[in-house]
Amino acid sequence: MKHYRHVIKPGIFILMILLAAPWVYSQSVAIAAGHSGTVSVMAFDSARNYILSAGADGFLGIWSIRNNSAIDRFQVSPYGIRSLSLRPGKSQAAIVESDGVGVYRISAWDYVAKQNLFTLRFRDPITFINYSAAGNFLIVSRSGRTGVVFIHPETGEILNSPPDMTGTVSFAATGRSERTVMTYTASGQINYWELDSGREVQNAMTIPNLGSPILFGNNRYLCGIDPDGLVVLDAVTGKEIARDRDVNRGKLFTVSSSDLLEFMYLGTLNNSAARGTINLTHYIITTQGKLEKQNKTTASSMPIISSGVTAQGGAVALGTVDGGVWLFGEHDLEPRVLNRVKVTQVSATAVSGDTLGIITEDKFLSFLPLDYQSIRDRATITLENSRGYTQIYGDSGILPGTPGRFLLWQTENTRSYPEIIIGAGTEDRKDMILGRLNLRHPLRNASLLGSQALFLDSVGNITVMSTETGSSKFTYTATDPLDIAFLDNENVIIGQTNIAQNAPFLTVNITTEETVPFNYPSTVGAKLYRGPEGAVYGGVVEGSSDSAISALLLLDIDNPSSSTRLVEYRGEDTGFIIAQSGESVASTIGGNGSTLHSNRGFIPFERAPSLPINLLGCEDYFIVLGRDGTISWHDPATGFLLARMRFLETEWILETQNRSRTIRGPLQKKN
Questions:
Q1: How far is residue 667's CA from residue 228's CA, in Å, rounded to a whole number?
Q2: Which residues contact 475 (CB under 8 A, 6 or more apart)?
Q3: 178: phi > 0 → left, psi -120 to 50 → alpha, else beta; which?
Q4: How many Cα atoms are found within 13 Å in the side-chain-facing hemisphere of 295?
Q5: 310 with 617: CB under 8 angstroms?
Q6: Hey, is 659 helix, strand or coil?
């Protein structure tokens, strides 16, 4: 049995620690598609007449009020976005990202230049974020932590903040001069702090647990919502000024300037099975301190509305659960939808031979030339019904220049058996269903090597089948396996969690069933990848959750302790992707995009408009599938972007390097 330890020159790998670093996206023709999921937060950029939106898909969307349409989008996070704040006077935004479990990050972006300024990770959930009045620093508060953190808006440097703050801050704001900062805590405490000295200069007790707090009237009034309705308070003394008991939930917004004695209330979002309803009320405080309703408007013509709403200058922007944005102008009788381009979302890709296989989110399948230069202008690309398959794997053992060989499968149920496609993209194509697979549980993973297919189901059952006869050759049950791959035609390797921290992988001979632990000092064997020439790579996690290190290894099967450590990331990453092209290895470790690990060191790929959900290697290219469905070809030696392909509703578009050539053609779906 021969195991490849090095496919490239010894010593070319350099051990590196990957940290979150700023990056700039490459420029391309914008595809104004909005969001692929719920819009969670929004903000107005009045200087550019834009609305910015962000959501569960991790994208930042830019919408033109003047053009009544989306104009661009790009991905700023692999996680959902929970908060969004714009820096006054700049084209910069701060966002709060979280996976909802244990990852809490703040990042800042120049959204015109599409440039990341910094990314910071926190241990606790972030409950509030806002820029100071002049934009000279960010104000951040965290759940379970007292006080606030001040952050430099461009470098991410932690700045000095008042040291004696107590309580969990749920709202904070500075005056225009930024000499003082006002904080409001969930316990109902109002405090004013002098920023130069950090000392407290004023405090008062008021109503606790205000929802949607805002300051207005030149910071004279604090307004919020509690169980007894909408309440207006003196922002210095905490004294109750006025109340509307008919209000029980919703969001509050200043109109256009906090100087005005006017604010808006966006009432309960009543979502029916298919439509959404809003109640919009304008309030003013008279000079005598009386709360008056100026007008009330009800609109119910939108789709189901999300929590992503914002208002400015009398206009209200409303996000929807289907990724759209509606605008309710100050003088509009009904809200209007902002236009966006419909796209065909590619969700899975694979390479084999000279063929690139794709599956779309709506379960269509197509095979394209692997070399983007072979795609002809105005050629029709046909998408055939995938027959329910959502996943595709390509046999890397097929020689370049020959038709591809692919395995189709799905993870949703046990009704559809996997299928082999031989001669993909040719008139001699043959399809064979592997109907003898014991499919009692949904599949989690599948791969091909030569005349064998490897399957892992959701309860740990492993099966190797002959693709020539369709019969089972080997079955094995593993305990909580994380990943699996072929080592060669006789052995498979399994990634696992190892409490003893000494065997993250296990090799199994499919003929003798002999098992051999892969002894290496790691807790988790998270990822496995077999390269085209037989080199096997593994992703491991070491240490506890607070001090975890994820690493990419070139595995030495015969002598595990001699495995080559290629790259490290300070943090836990169990889902990164690995690929090899010629003498270059790339991965997505760290979650901030694809990176190249070669004899030139660590090189980030030139960024596409979104983060990768798949990374493939072939003889001449790395191919990246982005979260937005974009397919991009990259130089394996430099990571430079060579071409980018996108699929609209009825058209495909291919841009080559530096946009020197753009071709397109019809996209046809065939059932």
A1: 56
A2: 438, 461, 462, 463, 464
A3: left
A4: 6
A5: no
A6: helix
How far apart are the C-alpha atoms of 198 and 192, rounded to whole Å? 10
Cβ atoms of 309 and 51 within 8 Å: the answer is no
Q: What share of the chain is helix, strand, coil (3-state, %, to 5)?
A: 0, 55, 45
* Tokens standing for residue 527: 């990822």
What is 497-528 written as a DSSP string?
B-TTSS-SEEEEETTT--EEEE--S-SEEEEE
In the predicted structure, residue 12 carries a pLDDT above the cut 60: no
Are 360 and 392 spatial neighbours (Cβ–Cβ below 8 Å)? no
CB 109 within 8 A of CB 76: yes
Task: Give tens-digit pLDDT for 37-86.
Answer: 899 999 999 899 999 999 999 999 999 999 999 999 999 999 999 999 99
Can you say how many angstroms the Cα of residue 474 is from the centroid of all Cα atoms in its chain? 38
* Helical (H) or strand (E) element with 216: strand 211-216
Find all residues with CB under 8 Å of 552, minimum gap 6, and list them.
Answer: 537, 538, 539, 565, 566, 567, 568, 576, 578, 585, 587, 589, 597
| SS3 labels along 609-649 | CCCEEEEEECCCCEEEEECCCCEEEECCCCCCEEEEEEEEC
pTM of the shown model: 0.86
CB atoms within 10 A of CB 255: 20
Helix (H) or strand (E) segment spanning residue 260: none
Q: How far is CA 475 from the centre of its chain?
A: 36
Closest CA to 381 of 132, 598, 569, 645: 645
What pLDDT shows up at residue 425?
87
What is the tens place of the pLDDT at every residue in 374-426?
A: 999 999 999 999 999 999 999 988 888 889 999 999 999 999 999 999 999 89
What is d(CA 382, CA 532) in angstroms, rounded to the nearest whole number? 29
How far apart are alpha carbons 182 and 203 in whole angstroms?
9
Paired tokens of 175: 């005056």
Long-range interactions of 293-296: CB distance < 8 A, separation 24+? 293/244, 294/262
Instruction: Determine the Cα–Cα distance for residues 515 and 518; give it in Å rounded to an integer.
Output: 10
**427-451 b/e with 16+ CB inside 10 Å = b?**
eeeeeeebeebebeeebbbbbbbee
Closest by CA position to 587, among listed 523, 512, 527 = 527
Give CA–CA dist 457/444, Å, rounded: 5
Chain mean position to CA 629: 13
Comparing C-alpha atoms, which of 106, 33, 108, 121 is closest to residue 74?
A: 33
Strand order in 17-18's β-sheet?
17-18, 564-570, 549-554, 536-542, 524-530
Q: Whats the size of the chain, residue-wise?
A: 671
